[in-house]
Amino acid sequence: MSLSGVLARRCLKAGRRWYRSSRRITEHGPHGVTFTRLRGVEVVYDPLVNQGTNFSMTLRERMLIRGLVPPSVQPMEMQVDRIVTSLNDIEKPIDKYSFLQQLLDRNVVLFYKVLCEHFAELAPIVYTPTVGQACESQDLIYRRTKGMWYSVNDIGMMKSMTYNWPEDHVDIIVVTDGGRILGLGDLGTNGMAIPIGKLNLYVAGGGINPRRTLPVTIDVGTNNEKLLNNRRYLGVHQRRLEDDEYYSFVDEWMDAVTTRWPNACIQFEDFATDKAFKLLEKYRNKHTCFNDDIQSTGCIALASILASLRCRRKTFKDLRTERIVIAGAGSAGLGVCEQIAEFMIRQGAKRDEAYSRFWMLDHNGLIGRGRSKQNLFHLQSSFMREDMDSEMDLLTVVQAVKPTVLIGLSGAKGIFTHPVLAEMAKHVDQPVVLPLSNPSNMSECTAEEAFNYTKGRAIFASGSPFDPVVLPDGKLKHTNQCNNIYSFPGMGLAVSTCRIRRVTDTLFHASAERIASLLSDEEVHNGILFPRLAELRNVSAQVAAAVVEQATIEGLVAKPPPDNVDLVDFMRRRMWQPKYDVLVPVH
Does residue 299 sit in helix, strand or coil? Predict the structure, then answer.
């Protein structure tokens, strides 16, 4: 039997299985076929079924939508051109964001086709830095449900609530409690734009099927007075649950979602530091989950430093000799330092030796001798310096340490000042400057400042994008976006494809090594640390392959790939593509 005949038989069997179950209105079957009972205006109002002007005349007749869409039958390429032309006429990024979210509300496939084909230009629109503004104005721009909210009003009902979501198969859940949104603080349910944006990137960058993603906000209240006094605020108007009440709430939610979707990978996003670490430690060995701010950010910061070692003509083993000063001791800063330290230990360093390569500052200054450990988180105390006085300011620390790497995850705009960067450059030929706070208006310095203050010698990577810099002598200096977008889509692809049971730190180490190895020596010697964002799907396939290789070594793979397969090619072929399904109307 021919391949087309085999596919036809499989599709027919899938259709019959679905038809015998009357619960579903639409079933997205295998091989790009969708069976649906929808007819008429319901078809064009369903964003997972709607194809807009792409509907053929035959399908318009069969689906009872003749006259409900414009008469011209247009290929997807023309639809994309119309969307991009409209986007180019919009000036403000937040207005572009709203336009794209409205497209997602109407036509999921077309949204992702546009995003995939213009990823480098649109990634800053659907996520950082624009998503920060979207969160702050969520009470004004909210239009349509794209995920689920679980609030304090739903305690005792969460397990039954999960069945309100129409999809039986979910691969990736991104959840936030809105406690620490980017560098903006407690935004409560306004933080829902973060899980939505993150999953947009999972789909566009990692090829995750959008039907198998779920954005979630758990609404435990907010301590933001401005929101509590805003009658338009979309969440519950009460202060946050704390202590046992908070963790009991999250326990119920975890039990609910893992009961219905036991194979889903859960990504915790933008939780306050104290809760982020406790939740990760509580669930990481029980469920397939990870914390993006702690582990993904740590992974990409590690990849940045490894790539910078190549730029400086060193090897990955030379990481143990770096002197790393970090401004920011929250969940992201601690996660970065812990990932780097653990990588050093994997390479043979003793734990004390690894921790000795870091100088960590919080809002009070250096975490050093004289600081009470009772006021520190467990990991913060691990990085305490016993050889230097506490609360030294950043410039004094830089003068004393002469760091090779300066990392910012403080959310404090402009703290990498001219004196700080100039002092660093006095002692290091190629200072590695990583202002990683998001959004861009929270960055510790700009690219132009980093290059000008170091006389053009910096190796630069930032959390939000900056344009390349032309120095006064005409030399072009490359900027890099140290964004965990290079890490988590590939991680999600690996976990969902091969059913990896647990997400360990060593999987992130494997990801970081692969990311740092992708470019040629010539490229990294020119200060380029990462591939272009337009190549993200290729990066994700490489990351997924590296993760599966490491997970196989650790015995974590429940659904192994075929023997002797090219893993990168296998992962690439498992990616969802933004193409319209063949619609099969059923009765």
Answer: helix
Give the CA radius of gyration of the chain.
25
Residue 577, CB half-sphere, CA atoms under 13 Å: how many? 9
Predicted local distance difference test score (pLDDT) of residue 18: 44
Lowest mean pLDDT among 158-162, 270-274, 544-548: 270-274
C-alpha torsion angle, residues 569, 75, 54, 33 (rounded to 10): -30
Rounded to an integer, what distance in angstroms lies between the CA atom of residue 316 and that of residue 65?
Answer: 60
Q: Kindly list the distances between the CA atom of residue 359 and the CA atoms of 395, 408, 430, 511, 552, in Å, as whole numbers in the listed order.
A: 12, 12, 19, 25, 35
Question: What average pLDDT does range 370-395 have in this prediction?
Answer: 88
**Band of the pLDDT at 3, cuts 50, 70, 90?**
very low
Measured between alpha carbons, how far is residue 98 from residues 102, 128, 134, 234 in Å? Answer: 6, 14, 8, 18
**pLDDT (average), residues 50-61:** 96
**Residues annotated catalytic, as ranges:** 127, 198
Give the Cα separation of 320 and 494 in Å (integer).
29
Closest CA to 331 of 354, 362, 355, 359: 362
- Please, which residues bridge with residue 476 across strands? 470
Give CA angle at 59 (54, 61), nearest 5°. 120
Q: Quickly state the pLDDT bin for 29 (edges 50, 70, 90).
A: low
pLDDT above 70: percentage of residues in the chain: 95
d(CA 215, CA 429) in angstroms, rounded, equals: 45
What single-letter amino acid sits at 70? P
**Two structure tokens written together for 365:** 């200054």
Q: What is the DSSP letter of 327?
A: E
| Gap between the Cα atoms of 258 and 214, Å rounded | 13
483 has pLDDT over 90: no
Would the pLDDT of 320 be above 90? Answer: yes
Q: Which residues on adjacent β-strands are paired with residue 27?
A: 35
Dist. CA 318–CA 509, nearest whole Å:
16
Contact 181/273 with Cβ under 8 angstroms?
no
Instruction: Please check whether residue 359 is in contact with residue 324, taking contact to mean a CB–CB distance below 8 angstroms.
Output: yes
Which DSSP symbol is given to 462?
B
Percent with pLDDT over 90 in the chain: 87
In the structure encoding, which two tokens stand for residue 64, read together?
Answer: 């009872």
- Say whether pTM exceeds 0.85: yes
pLDDT of the residue at 376: 83
Q: How far apart, in whole angstroms, are the C-alpha atoms of residue 434 and residue 332? A: 13
For the chain, report the end-to-end CA distance as a whole number of angstroms: 29
Number of H helices, E strands in the chain: 26, 18
